[in-house]
Every structure is written in structure tokens, then in C-alpha cells.
Design a protein that fits this description.
Elements: E1 6-7, E2 20-22, H1 23-33, E3 40-45, H2 49-59, E4 64-71, H3 82-91, E5 94-97, E6 99-107, E7 110-124, E8 130-134, E9 140-143, E10 146-149, E11 153-154, H4 192-195, H5 200-215
Parallel strand pairs: 2-10, 3-4, 3-10, 4-5
Antiparallel strand pairs: 1-11, 6-7, 7-8, 7-9
Helix pairs in contact: 1-2, 2-3
Length: about 220
């Protein structure tokens, strides 16, 4: 039950410069250590609950001028709770939808801005939401001093195979949905490591189920 703490990368040019932070790391630093690395103009790429959480935390920090959430689909497709999005906007967070990042711009080795392209909605994908389709010729640049990225988190299961435990193609632990048992005798798995990112409540519920199954 080790969760999903490995952030997906944008996989675009310039991603490894200073001033870019995975949202999970940013939120951990703030909540566990009381530190905030957000300054100036802050961009938050993503549309989930972590994006909204990070944006609201950043907005409250001294030295932050503005916070903008940038999401590739429309607000209706955002996976974040609608009430949280409303509260973030009411608090002063800006929301820019139908945009995708193309390139990170730097100056003296530090973040200076991001080049985006505008999207339009296409066909419905496997998640039940419409795909975002880039519109050629709509590229634009937005200046940021801090970039927080949260486009999905993964379990860090690189070492699991050495334990003889099977992993699915999407990087989660393969398990029996009824018993929570893995392919290795006596080893159970639950929470985000089998479902991908989910809520704390779901993880706790799975823990109780696993405890019951182990006891049996």
C-alpha cells in the first residue's frame, strides 16, 4: 500500500530547468515541512484535485503575484471537484482551458515562460471525456516564474518485479479484485498502488478490506 507518488512528466523541451515542481512534491513540502517554492507568476498545469490544491496553496504565499491553472480540455471535463474549482476561482485563481504546453522557456537556467497551443475538443476517449485536439497556428507564450505540474501520478513499482510480483502494463500492481491478493502467496496490495491516484477515503477502505482478507 505504497501509494502513487511518482509524477508523470510533460515530456517537452526544457522540462528539467529550475522553477518547475511536481505538484505532489510541492504539496508535501508545504504540508510536511512548511516550505513553499512558489514565487511571482505561478502556472499550474493540470485539471485534477492536486492542481487545484497546489494553486490555492500557492496563491496564499507571500511573494506570489498570480496563479493560473492551465488545462487541456474544458472546465466541464476537469476531473477536480467542481466545488473546489469554484472556490479556487472565487479566491483569485485564474483558469485557462483548452491549452497544452509545447515548450519550456528559460533564461539563465531558470524558468521564464511556457509556449502553449490552443486545443479544440475531439472525439470521446476511453475515459468518457472528449479528446483535446491541437489547433495549428494558435501557439502563444505565457510568462511564469514558477511552474507546478500535475498531469497524473504513478506508483513507483520499479523494484516490484524483483520480488516476483506482477505489474500491469499501466504500472500498477496486478491483484485479485475480490481478495486483494497478488500473484505471490501471502502478499496483498491495495490503495493507489493498484487503482492509480484516488482519494484517501478509498485507500483507507481498501486497507480495511485487505486486513479482513489477510485475517481470513
Amino acid at each position: 500500500a505504497m501509494g502513487a507518488h511518482k509524477s508523470r512528466k510533460l515530456n517537452i523541451e526544457g522540462e528539467d530547468i529550475g522553477g518547475i515542481h511536481p505538484a505532489i512534491n510541492y504539496l508535501k513540502d508545504y504540508n510536511l515541512r512548511g516550505r513553499s517554492s512558489a514565487t511571482g507568476r505561478v502556472g499550474v498545469i493540470g485539471g485534477g484535485d492536486s492542481a487545484v490544491d497546489a494553486a490555492r496553496v500557492a496563491l496564499r504565499q507571500p511573494g506570489v503575484q498570480s496563479v493560473t491553472i492551465l488545462y487541456r480540455r474544458t472546465r466541464q471535463e476537469m476531473p477536480a471537484l467542481a466545488g473546489e474549482v469554484d472556490a479556487a476561482i472565487a479566491e483569485g485563481v485564474k483558469l485557462e482551458t483548452l491549452v497544452s504546453p509545447l515548450k519550456i522557456l528559460s533564461r539563465d537556467g531558470k524558468l521564464h515562460g511556457v509556449t502553449f497551443i490552443r486545443n479544440q475538443l475531439g472525439d470521446v476517449d476511453a475515459s468518457g471525456r472528449r479528446n483535446s485536439v491541437p489547433v495549428p497556428g494558435t501557439e502563444f507564450t505565457a510568462e511564469f516564474d514558477t511552474l507546478i505540474v500535475t498531469i497524473g501520478d504513478l506508483p513507483d513499482v520499479d523494484y516490484i518485479s524483483s520480488m516476483g510480483i506482477e505489474v500491469t502494463p499501466r504500472g500498477t500492481i496486478r491483484f485479485d479484485k475480490e481478495t486483494l491478493h497478488t500473484n505471490r502467496h501471502g502478499v496483498f496490495a491495495g490503495g493507489d498502488v493498484v487503482t492509480g491516484p484516488n482519494t484517501v477515503v478509498q485507500a483507507i477502505a481498501t486497507g480495511k478490506r485487505a486486513a479482513s482478507m489477510i485475517d481470513r
